[in-house]
Amino acid sequence: MLKYLTVPVTAFAQNCSIVWCDETLDAAVIDPGGDLDRIESEARRLGVTLKAIWLTHAHIDHAGGTAELARRLALPVIGPHPGDQFWIDGLPQQSQMFGFPPAGPFTPTRWLADGDTVQIGNSTLNVRHCPGHTPGHVVFHSPEAKRAFVGDVLFAGSIGRTDFPQGNHAQLISSIQQRLWPMGDDTVFIPGHGPESTFGEERRHNPYVR
Q1: Residue 101 main-chain phi, psi, to 5 deg
Q2: Which of 104, 119, 136, 193 has CB 3.0 to 4.6 Å from 84, enough for a Cys bridge?
Q3: What is the pLDDT of residues 29-77, one digit of tens each?
Q4: Structurally, what CATH architecture does the domain formed by 2-205 represent?
Q5: How far, in Å, CA of 113 to CA of 80, rounded?
């Protein structure tokens, strides 16, 4: 079964997630935006072995630590969708603009597309392309664990911003309704910031998408 731990990182309190297979203790880290020593320390505390980096999208608070962590631990970088190439290329500028530690660009080991899967140990997660916040944003869904790691697509009571370059509000709403809701009302989602919620709760009460 898939297990996970949420580790808020950076001054933006971005929800980095360590996800692992409880049979093999192989782990992936989703969106290592920064505070890499803390991420590595939590992985050691959990007794898991980091095997890959998975990215939902390439904004600085989600991807800023990727190049360094990949170099330190020789990890493959999986994702996001190629639509976020320009955000990856701009990471050095993003880090200066927002006062983050210097962030280098990188080339993902594997780009992701809608309908792909990613695997860690014996756990397989489905990939959905959910553009709108960024054009290359993806979401990782574990049907067995009824969990979805949605980055900045959807939040408890809110939705992702669409005022960044190549953001698109109508596209974001469509991504939520067409790609997230079918995962089921009882699916718990881990957003990029703030508390967890369920898709059912947001369908009923989120003023932006109910």
Answers
A1: -55, 155
A2: 136
A3: 999 999 999 999 999 999 999 999 999 999 999 999 999 999 999 999 9
A4: 4-Layer Sandwich (3.60)
A5: 8
